[in-house]
Amino acid sequence: KGLKKLGRNAFRECRALKKIVLPNGLKKLENSVFEDCTSLCSVTLPQRLLSIGDGAFSGCRSLTIIEFPASVRKIEGAAFDGCSDMKKIAIPEGVQKLEAFVFRRCEKLLDLTIPASVTQIASNLFDYNGAATPGLVIRGVPGSAAEAFAKEVKKTFRPL
Fold first, then answer.
1. Cα–Cα distance measured from residue 22 to residue 52, given in angstroms and rounded to the nearest whole number
2. Burial class of residue 114 in the structure, from the number of CB atoms within 10 Å of its CB (0-12 exposed, 13-18 middle, 19+ buried)
3. CA proximity to 5, closest of 25, 34, 32, 35
4. SS3 136
5. Strand pairing partners for 93?
6. Which of 96, 109, 115, 151 is the most buried (most CB within 10 A)?
7. Comparing C-alpha atoms, which of 119, 86, 120, 72 is closest to residue 100?
8. Is the pLDDT of residue 65 over 90?
């Protein structure tokens, strides 16, 4: 109940971890907190979570979907790097910036929703050259950073 953050590397390389429900008082996931938890397939994020640190879920290749609470404001670089089974992600309204490599090596990502609140998207969100999964659809508000980014990386844009 009193836990406010999960520290750096707290569950790193816990390869047997398959499912976790995080407590509601938690506001921050530090860097690499679940890095290389290769069997992790289900995460329930708390409703008051504000920040997901650099590489927090990096290498969690069994993670297929993650639902963000509306409270999330910051998703740091490489947060989901190597989540190779991830298929669909909807960034919550309120996040303003998507940093480098957040979705690098997410080879099965086919559906990414980016809200109007996101005004900055790193050109290397997916990889060094902006490459992303063939067939990826980026959804967002017409005229937004999401639409401009979709054009930049030559991906299909669909209005929300």
1. 13
2. buried
3. 25
4. coil
5. 95
6. 109
7. 120
8. no
pTM of the model: 0.93
Q: Strands 97-98, 120-121: parallel, antiparallel or unpaired by DSSP? A: parallel
Scan for tokens 């008082």, then name that residue. Answer: 25
Annotate 78-131 with DSSP letters as a single string. TTTTT-TT--EEEPPBTB-EE-TTTTTT-TT--EEE--TT--EE-TTSSSTT--
**Is the CB of residue 35 less than 8 Å from the CB of residue 61?**
no
- Look at residue 132 in the predicted model and tell me its pLDDT: 73
Quote the tokens at residue 80.
């989901």
Q: Is the pLDDT of residue 129 over 80?
A: no
What is the DSSP secondary structure assignment for residue 48, as one 8-state letter?
Answer: T
63/59 Cα distance (integer angstroms) = 9
Tell me the one-letter amino acid at 111.
D
